[in-house]
Each structure stands twice: as C-alpha cells, then as structure tokens.
Design brief:
Layout lengths: L1 H11 L9 H22 L10 H11 L15 E8 L2 E4 L17 H13 L7 E2 L6 H6 L3 E6 L9 E10 L12 E12 L1
Parallel strand pairs: 4-6
Antiparallel strand pairs: 1-2, 1-5, 3-6, 5-6
Helix pairs in contact: 2-3
Amino acid sequence: MRFIEKISLQVTAPVARTSVPRNWVFVTAAIWVLVAFYLAQAFLPKNIVRLPAQDAVHDAALVVAPQGWAFFTRSARSSEYVPFGFSNGAWNDLRLAPHARASNAFGLDRASRSQGIENALLLHEKGLVWQPCGNATSAAECLKKTPVTSQLKNRSPSPSICGRSAMVEMKPVPWAWRDLLPGTHTPVRAAVWDVEC
C-alpha cells in the first residue's frame, strides 16, 4: 500500500514550468521567417518580388550561407553538345547515353562515359567553324542547311564519331515555354565536319 502511495505522490507532484511570453515566441518566429525569406530571395533568379535592401542582403548571404550546388551537379540551363552522324541520307544522334540503358549493360559499359571526352577533344580541334541554327526547332532541320567546314582527326583511342559528323549545341527549353515547342531542347549552333578515325 505504501508503494502505491509513493507512486501517486510522484504523479501528483507539481511540475515546474517556465512562463515564456507569447509575444516573444511570435517575434522570434517572425524574425526567422523573414531571414529565411531573404535568404531564399537572394538565391532565386530575378522575379517580381523585390525586398528592401535585397542587394545588400544578397552579398551578405553569399558569405554567411553560400549555396555551392555546382560542386554536385551542373546547371540544368547549360547547353549540351550532341554528336550526330550522317548515314543513309539522314542525320542520326550518335549519343551512347543514357548510361543506364540496356545497350550500355545498365551502366557497366563505360563507353558512354568516354564519349564526353571524345566530344571535348573534337570541339577543341583547330578549324572548327560554328554556324548559327537561326529559327530551326530541331537539330536535323539545322543540320540540313549547315555546310561541311573542315576535316578533323579523331584522336580518341576507341572513336564513336567517324565520317561525316556534326556537333550541335542544344539549349534546354525554359520551363515557362515547355508547351510552345515540340522538344525539350532547341539547337543554337552546329558544326559539320569530315572526321578521320
């Protein structure tokens, strides 16, 4: 019986509480929301929202809370260079990517990875002449009007780009225009050459 009395005494003992004024809680929460809003606005692209002293906060935010995502991934808005080959009277995409598809042994075959290096080597050859694509909405449309400008030697140990070839700079379609264009990328410029392997 005494054991039950001890338990009931412990349960009914008053709990010490600290009183925090609600105004302090609201002011602290409002300050943190304002700081988070300023930080978010400092790293977002230009938009309709403009906060007082936003430019000064942007400089301070870069020092206090740098957003270095470029280390992990490249910008989704950057151009990509797509290799094409001419065969059977048509331009064909020569990309070996995506890396995880069955033809690449679900990522175990590394040839698709080495093609990026091969592209870079070809793009840094002398005599490369770019032609603007103008209003072309597809790479094939752009390549139809692009003349052969040079002859290159592919120095890659296992070349995937040989013969009449081209490189097309493709820019991603902005998200706001996604319904206005047929594809996800539009051609910006192209270079056509004869590649010796």
